[in-house]
Amino acid sequence: MKKCEKCGTPQRNSHFRCVECGAILGKPLSEAEEERMEEQISDYIADRAERTETFYITRLDKIMIALDILGILASVLYLIFGPKNTDGQGICLFLILIFLLAGIDTAFPKIAWILEKWRVEMRYHVENLEPSDWYLITRKIINVVFPILAYMALLFVLVNT
Ligand SMILES: [Zn+2]
């Protein structure tokens, strides 16, 4: 295997010029280099294949999961060190539940889908249901909007108690 030094395209040893950019190619890669190149290619393909999955966890999802965990930690800290016997404690308990549910649903979207699928299949007697784009989009929005509202409520509690 050869690799174009100009554009990085891998190609056959028999090629003299790059099929992509036309640059003159150098010597074939060493065995170790070729192995590494093949690994990169299969990693790339695996990554692309994963992205076509309906429930692919995006970068935004990962950020939201981290924010949900932080929200739970902040609420727990408030419960431990904040003023006692206030409305703030009740609100914080409720917020922990919101962060927890949003976090679990973002990290394991299939759980909610299995429940929803089961509910719809029972009710309408259909089979092999696939999630609609509408279902997927509303779910994503909910999992972003609810933690943001929960953070605002947490801020409200911290300012007012
Ligand atoms: Zn090239």
Verbal overview:
The chain folds into two domains: 2-51, no CATH class; 59-160, no CATH class. The protein has helices at residues 31-51, 59-81, 87-107, 109-124, 133-160, and strands spanning 2-3, 10-11. The protein is elongated, with a radius of gyration of 25 Å. It is an all-alpha fold and 161 residues long.
Please give a quick description of this structure:
The chain has 161 residues and is mostly helical. It contains five helices and two strands, in the order ββααααα.
Along the chain, the helix and strand elements come as EEHHHHH
Annotation, overall tally of beta strands: 2
Task: Estimate the helix proportion, in percent.
Answer: 55-70%
How is the largest sheet built, in terms of strand order? Answer: 1-2
Distance between the terminal alpha carbons, to the nearest Å?
A: 67 Å
How many whole angstroms does the radius of gyration measure? 25 Å
Largest sheet: 2 strands, antiparallel
What does the overall shape look like?
Answer: elongated
Query: What's the pLDDT, averaged over the residues?
Result: 92
Give the number of domains: 2
Number of helices: 5
Strand content: under 5%
Spell out which ligands are present: zinc ion
In the predicted model, the low-confidence regions spanning at least 5 consecutive residues are none
Structural class label: mainly alpha
Name the features.
68% helix, 2 strands, 2 domains, mainly alpha, 161 residues, 5 helices, two-stranded antiparallel sheet, elongated, binds zinc ion
